[in-house]
Amino acid sequence: MRSLNLGFKNLALSLFALLLIFPSWPAHSQSSAQPSAQITIIAHPEVDHGAINISKLKSIFSMRYRQWPSGNTIKVYVLKDNNPTHILFTKKILQTYPYNLRRIWDRRVYSGTGTAPIVLNSPAEMLLAVANNKNSIGYLPESQINDRVKVLNLR
User: Fold this and answer.
1) What is the CATH number assigned to the segment(s) 39-154?
2) For residues 76 and 126, what is the distance between their CA atoms, to the nearest angstrom?
3) Cβ(68)–Cβ(59) under 8 Å?
């Protein structure tokens, strides 16, 4: 019984020491991987939606919903999996993780039931791609949006 008490004391002391060494570790690791900007859904100006509900948005970005109501094929643009904007978008808006989204795309591609979205390197590329390609959708930090794209409100 005495050795069991010493084990718990050693464990408690080790955890306390870790908290002293890394007092803000969880908060710091999350904030450094995410931009502080609000993420906004954008589309080509000719897309006939002004708002989109979150379940349809999840279906679009998981490549299940492939056509606008007009019948035109949706062009989905995303940033690389390790891009901070992409991480924030998947966690806060789609409520999943980048690796889960990637797994969904890979499953669709390898099974032959769908395609993957078009992956871009930077927010600047995202802005140009969505602005220049009809029926396209993407996302950007609110601060990087201009009048060349349409903002889709979430409902």
Assistant:
1) 3.40.190.10
2) 10
3) no
The whole-angstrom separation of Cα 135 and Cα 118 is: 13
* Phi, psi (deg, nearest 5) at residue 123: -60, -35
Which pLDDT does position 37 carry in this prediction?
Answer: 65
Distance of alpha carbon 63 from alpha carbon 105, whole angstroms:
7
Q: What pLDDT score was predicted for residue 95? A: 95
Alpha carbons 28 and 141: distance in angstroms, whole number: 21
What is the token pair recorded at 155? 């409902």
Q: What is the pLDDT of residue 8?
A: 54
The predicted-structure confidence for 93-115, as pLDDT tens digits, reads as follows 999 999 999 999 999 999 998 89
The burial of 74, by beta-carbon neighbours within 10 Å (0-12 exposed, 13-18 middle, 19 or more buried), is given as middle
Residue type, 32: S
Q: Are strands 51-52 and 118-120 parallel, antiparallel or unpaired?
A: unpaired
Q: What is the pTM of this model?
A: 0.75
pLDDT tens column, 4-20: 455 555 555 454 444 44
Angle at 83 between CA 76 and CA 62, to 5 degrees: 30
Dist CA 41 CA 24 (whole Å): 32
